[in-house]
Design goal:
single chain; mainly beta; Agglutinin, subunit A; 2 domains; five-stranded antiparallel sheet; four-stranded antiparallel sheet; Bulb-type lectin domain-containing protein; glycoprotein
């Protein structure tokens, strides 16, 4: 199965003319990358759902699979999404994260020079851990990340009965009645996935740099009037992009935007649609990157 990825970037507000008219929007740049193949992670021997109590320690792996070669120590795998510890090559910086895993055809056949997975969510982006850190799904149903010394780094503060990674990249905790107690889609970092909403009060926050995933200088959110805006932290008045049309409202009046709606507003596609969209990511330079999956 072959996939081609395109990236669409927007820069600071500049008026330009195109076949769809003149808009005071952000300059659109298109980049075509090399053709990649997608590894189908379901064929690997990892679960997509687990039950408490369980724990996973971040240790040097003896496995030589494509995931481990890319610095990922899997805990849950579903479709092309992997949840687990994601570490730099020296393992000095590790995150409990979800990634969308891509690899070349050669890498899928045991050539482990594959591209790095694309992290789409992280629990501890501002507080990385190292080797010997531990993730615990406690008897009480709380998901807890501790560093190598046992200090608390992050937790969901839940009493869950099941942990589930969906094939859309959403990590969920359910109670015994199958009610969702917590989900990663409600806690976005710098990325949005199909099926995910951005609601008023939440925002995408860029990374500091391509090599440092701590929170950076740029945010993308919905303002009090329902417009999608991008601005420089820490001052929301430093807006460098604003959509011309307000987003939708829930029945209770809360502003929200579906993944597809954000892409349409961001890039003024209007009636042309956005085919096979796989990811929206706010880059470390404040540009929005959209990746497409093409048949």
């Amino acid at each position: 199965m072959h996939f081609s990825f395109q990236s669409h970037l927007f820069r600071h507000s500049i008026s330009f003319r195109s076949t769809i008219g003149e808009y005071d929007i952000l300059t659109l740049i298109t980049i075509q990358s090399s053709v990649l193949n997608l590894i189908i992670a379901q064929g690997l021997d990892y679960p997509w759902v687990v039950y408490p109590p369980l724990s996973w320690r971040n240790v040097v792996s003896n496995s030589f699979g494509s995931l481990e070669a890319a610095g990922v120590k899997p805990i849950l795998v579903n479709g092309n999404f992997v949840c687990g510890f994601h570490c730099t090559s020296t393992a000095e910086t590790c995150f409990f994260a979800i990634s969308f895993f891509n690899t070349s055809f050669a890498a899928a056949n045991a050539d482990y020079s594959s591209p790095s997975p694309q992290i789409v969510w992280s629990a501890n982006r501002n507080n990385p851990v190292q080797l010997e850190a531990e993730l615990e799904f406690t008897q009480q149903g709380d998901l807890v990340l501790q560093d190598a010394h046992g200090a608390l780094v992050w937790s969901t503060d839940t009493r869950a009965a099941r942990l589930n990674l969906t094939n859309q990249g959403n990590l969920l905790l359910f109670d015994k009645t199958n009610k969702v107690l917590w989900q990663s889609f409600d806690h976005p970092t710098d990325s949005l996935l199909p099926g995910q909403r951005l609601v008023y009060g939440l925002k995408l926050r860029s990374s500091l740099s391509e090599s440092n995933s701590s929170q950076g200088l740029y945010s993308y959110t919905i303002d009090e009037n329902g417009h999608l805006v991008a601005y420089m932290e820490p001052d929301p008045s430093q807006v460098y992009y604003k959509s011309s049309i307000a987003v939708s409202r829930t029945k209770t009046g809360q502003f929200y935007a579906e993944f597809e709606e954000i892409a349409l507003r961001m890039f003024e596609y209007r009636d042309t649609g956005v085919p096979n969209l796989t990811l929206i990511k706010l880059g470390s330079d404040g540009l929005s990157i959209v990746k497409f999956k093409l048949d």
